[in-house]
Design goal:
Layout lengths: L3 E2 L21 E2 L4 E2 L33 E2 L5 E6 L5 H12 L2 E4 H11 L2 H11 L6 H12 L2 H6 L1 E4 L5 H9 L6 E6 L2 H9 L1 E3 L6 E3 L8 H6 L8 H21 L4 E5 L4 H21 L3 E2 L8 H10 L13 H20 L4 E7 L12 H17 L4 E5 L18 H7 L12 E4 L12 E5 L10 H11 L4 E4 L18 H9 L2 E11 L6 E8 L4 E8 L5 E9 L5 H9 L12 H8 L1
Helix pairs in contact: 1-10, 2-3, 7-9, 11-12, 12-13
Bound molecules: BIS(adenosine)-5'-pentaphosphate (AP5).
């Protein structure tokens, strides 16, 4: 049986760096040069970006994430569950932006009603609420995209890709959208929308018996119902959509904009209009490449994300390349922003790439610091006052000391390059962990690797701090809140159950971990990734004949998968929810 361990790797190529065995860095604020162990962070590389952040209260639409080149027409992909409103919004987008609307559902329905060979093949799949085979749909879409009007006016792709294989087909043809829009609507609303939907076969308009009835009796009389709009079939379509959504999103993660589709259609369109107008404007004015997300230095990461299709490769190569680091900073940042914009306030980021796993001798404190700076600056860029908090030294007498991986970090944070816009001391402040750190001006808090240390339990301080923060977001970066017994008992006023309950109250907004065979750290078997608000994605790492590697999506999970679930997915077994972890599994689950 395949046994998978989730510990991170240690590689022979690694630059050895362990905070507890290394000397405190010598800091020189004027030159920002660091002696070992931080010497890999040159003054320049400590700036993370080739340019400094321009601190401003952003007027741009939040979360606009695009990548495009000048003088090309818009290329838009719109996705979402059945009846999320794709067709309805496409009508409005076409009216305003004149793009060529390519809806695979409409193309297939036209084939069915014309009784063509394709239509006859597609019919049974559609009527059963299943996906039509990839090769049929892909041939239709690529043929349509290659027509001159799509090239001249730009395109709006609706309902394609609908599977990872379809997304890959486009990637292989180098067909990428400028923006990937996902309409988000709760399941219970979708069923009603489908069952009440009616189509006008004459003008192609979409109506709803209750929400958007037609104006005239004449139109009403000719409306038709889609064969796949029964409750049962909608449920099956929805299930299929969910099974595929994460894998497709991972292909377009860097271009994804999620829109709340459960609002009046005009309101939804207002958001889309603003996104697309901004994108169009940017295409017309920016000289080379436009990436609007936080004036991003991360465009390199984004372009590679396409190449990597979800997970960067060569993760066993330490130190990680700047591209890989930027990829992860960007991935974490987007997830965190989505969670905060969604109103979540108690969040945790758990990123266990080899460089960020303190249990391994390839751990690099600078990578953690860069990640923290990236997140803090981005929120500050949106006008938020961010307090970056590092746990202070703890304990008394022989038990005094810094928790693992935090030695010297506060100093590093203070001396890091926070840009030329005066962010440090205004929009960014450095603090510690505890209720007294929370002042009225703070909008949010980023806590760097809070952890329990022998003799101390951070939970009480943390709890006091979150109580004081109230509804303001508190984000824990790589926390280690296991309930360690404190030998001195200092500050452990809360009972064990309460401590565990409190530690669990932080919601995961980002999770990444590599998977290995049990007891090994090589080769990488796969990876688990979760970015808010999406499911946990399980990937298998595959060696290609060319000597390269890639990560192939295996499955998705709404909750973090157990070791048994991962194992079953790797060997292709159906899910068995009742199975209990035992023996080696119990141990691994504990690690996991
Ligand atoms: P397709 O036609 O693409 O169906 P779908 O993705 O299931 O989406 P729908 O058309 O049902 O919904 P929609 O999001 O466009 O919503 P709409 O605007 O109409 O595909 C059909 C089938 O073809 C698939 O099941 C599959 O078999 C096959 N197929 C297609 N593409 C394929 C591919 N790539 N690969 C394989 N097979 C493929 O709105 C729905 C209703 O809600 C309407 O009544 C509308 O009036 C109402 N409404 C819309 N917006 C709002 C709002 N804001 N508030 C209230 N009501 C609203």
């Amino acid at each position: 049986m395949l046994a998978i361990s989730s510990s991170s790797c240690s590689c022979s190529t690694a630059t050895s760096l362990h905070p507890l065995t290394s000397a405190t860095p010598s800091l020189n604020p004027s030159s920002l040069s660091f002696s070992s162990p931080y010497s890999y962070l040159s003054p320049l590389s400590f700036r993370l970006h080739s340019k400094t952040h321009h601190l401003k209260i952003s007027q741009k639409p939040k979360g606009l994430r695009v990548s495009c080149s000048k003088n090309e027409p818009l290329k838009v992909m719109i996705s979402g569950a059945p009846a999320s409103g794709k067709g309805t919004q496409c009508e409005l987008i076409v009216q305003k932006f004149g793009l060529v609307h390519i809806s695979t559902g409409d193309l297939l329905r036209a084939e069915v009603s014309s009784g063509t060979e394709i239509g006859n093949k597609a019919k049974e799949f559609m009527n059963a609420g299943r996906l039509v085979p990839d090769e049929i749909v892909t041939a239709m879409v690529t043929a349509r995209l290659s027509r001159p009007d799509a090239k001249e006016k730009g395109w709006l792709l609706d309902g394609y890709p609908r599977s990872f294989a379809q997304a890959q087909s486009l990637e292989e043809l180098n067909i990428r959208p400028d923006i990937y829009i996902v309409l988000d609507v709760p399941d219970e609303i979708l069923i009603d929308r489908c069952v009440g939907r009616r189509l006008d076969p004459v003008n192609g308009k979409i109506y709803h018996l209750k929400s958007f009835p037609p104006d005239s009796e004449e139109i009403k009389a000719r409306l038709v119902t889609r064969a796949d709009d029964t409750e049962e079939k909608v449920k099956s379509r929805l299930e299929i959509y969910k099974q595929n959504a994460a894998a497709i999103s991972s292909t377009y993660n860097s271009l994804m904009n999620k829109i709340d589709g459960n609002r009046p259609k005009e309101t939804v369109f207002k958001d889309l209009d603003s996104l697309l107008s901004q994108l169009q404007k940017d295409k017309a004015t920016k000289p080379v490449k436009a990436v609007l997300q936080s004036e991003s230095h991360l465009d390199q990461a984004s372009s590679n994300q396409g190449k990597w299709r979800g997970i960067p490769t060569r993760l066993n190569n330490i130190p990680h390349s700047r591209e890989i680091r930027n990829y992860f900073y960007d991935d974490v940042l987007q997830a965190t922003q989505r969670a905060v914009n969604d109103g979540r306030t108690r969040l945790k980021v758990e990123i266990n790439i080899p460089e960020l796993n303190p249990e391994m001798d390839v751990y690099r404190i600078g990578t953690l610091m860069e990640l923290v700076r990236e997140i803090a600056l981005s929120f500050a860029d949106d006008g938020k006052r961010v307090k970056v908090c590092v746990q202070g030294s703890m304990g008394q007498g022989a038990l005094a000391g810094m928790p693992l991986q935090l030695a010297g970090t506060r100093k590093i944070l203070e001396f890091m390059d926070w840009g030329n816009d005066g962010a440090m001391g205004t929009f960014i402040n450095i603090g510690s962990i505890g209720a007294k750190e929370v002042v009225e001006e703070d909008d949010m808090f980023i806590l760097v690797a809070p952890q329990n240390a022998v003799g101390n339990c951070i939970i009480d301080d943390l709890k006091a701090m979150t109580d004081a923060a109230g509804k303001r977001p508190v984000i824990l970066i790589n926390p280690r809140l296991k309930d360690l017994p404190g030998s001195s008992g200092i500050m452990q006023t809360m009972g064990r159950d309460k401590r565990l309950e409190y530690a669990a109250s932080f919601e995961s907004c980002y999770f990444f971990r590599l998977l290995y065979y049990a007891g090994t750290q090589y080769p990488i078997m796969g990876a688990i990734r979760m970015t808010f608000p999406y499911s946990y994605e399980l990937y298998r790492r595959v060696d290609e004949a060319s000597g390269k590697e890639k990560y192939v999506p295996l499955s998705t999970f709404t909750e973090r998968p157990t070791i048994d679930e991962i194992n079953d997915a790797f060997i292709g077994k159906p899910r068995n929810k009742d199975k209990k972890a035992s023996g080696i599994w119990a141990f691994l689950s504990g690690v996991f």
